[in-house]
Amino acid sequence: MKSSTLNIIFILALFSLAYATFSSKSSLPCSDDFLDLDAYKRMYTEKNTTQCKKLTTLHAQFSWNYHRTSHNQTQINVLIGTKLITDMGWLAWGVNPDLPMMVGTRAIIAIKVPNQSIPVVKTYNITKDTKLHCALRPSGIDVTVQNMKAEHIAGDNGYFTVFATLILPEKYDITSLNHVWQVGYLAEDLEPKMHSTSLQNFDSKEILDLETGHCQNVVHNRQHLRKIHGILNIIGWGTLLPIGVIVARYFRQFPFELKTWWFSFHYSCQALGYILGGIGWGLGLLLGHESKYYAFHKHRVLGICIFGFTTLQMLAFRLKPRREDEYRKHWNVYHHFLGYSLLVMIPLNIYQGIKILKPDNRTWKWAYNGILVLLAIVVSALEIYTWTTFLINNNKKKSSGDGKVAATSKTNEGSRNSPQTDQGTSN
Predict the structure, then answer these.
(1) Share of the chain above pLDDT 90, in %
(2) Edge-to-edge strands, sheet with 177-184
(3) Which of 136, 153, 422, 425 has the fewest CB neighbours in a 10 Å radius?
């Protein structure tokens, strides 16, 4: 059994890695509706734009060109845009001389407020205080910025664009330029308020080669780990553990009796689910440790509780009291209560994790919805069959005479009230 379990784990791990690899997104050219914007056409005509690409998050698109100045500096013209269909919001783009991260970024932020036809554009220094929710006010930056302009197209198209010309000092390497972008929906005067806390907002950064257009997605490996984390937990905790419960409930004695086989299936599902879920949980802790400036507290707390409860359930296979022990009945109540609590907590936490992936979570949501629907259909069919068989057997016993019913009830005490009474959890 151990070798077959290890083979299954190996196959699932390869499947997870393959899925993560082939589902990763590559750099794409700008969309036609972005290329049709007046802002892009002006930039293309006046500045001879040569590069345009879709950014990896927030549905943003980015266009640029550059040339060397006589003082050995780099002048770049940039245009960034994304759809903003609300009356209020802000769009930010900036460069960081040290690392591809928000803290330390020299940013250009355009703010659109209601009843304002032209957005206001200013420069800002993003510091650690900004991450602590201190007010972000306009300030000078150590990069010369010229020709700042922002436009917002009202209506369904809703493009919000920012254009600027920057003169970068020598410390900025154009072959590996750290640039970040961000979108928010609240602002007060010239102060942009906190953006959403989705993963897309935290992943809006990359290292760009201005010469070739190639980019290094600095969160690429982290995105792979997230996918593997999700796959392992959905398969391990979200699928195999419930199957183990189904086997223990319906295939031990009633309505189907698999004798000693039920326990092997039950143990295998629980053990394999625990191993896969434990690996996924460990990856989740690693991802949380790497997330220096953000955390998803509800998802983390639920995950820790699930791992702790599943560990207690696995210890039950070794530490359970013997059947003849007088407190075995109380242990059964504890074991069942913990198991059914996990059946509630696991889907809740999986949906919490899927919610974090917004807006790229539709595939995850439908996949797990399908798993839950399939499990629900199986449980409903088995439950209907169980109660139907139980009621038919009871009616037959009643029709055979009171004496025989009384004799039977003594040998099967408790089975008259529920078809699942006193089935226990293991031998």
Answers:
(1) 26
(2) 120-125, 106-112, 89-96, 177-184, 205-208, 215-216
(3) 422
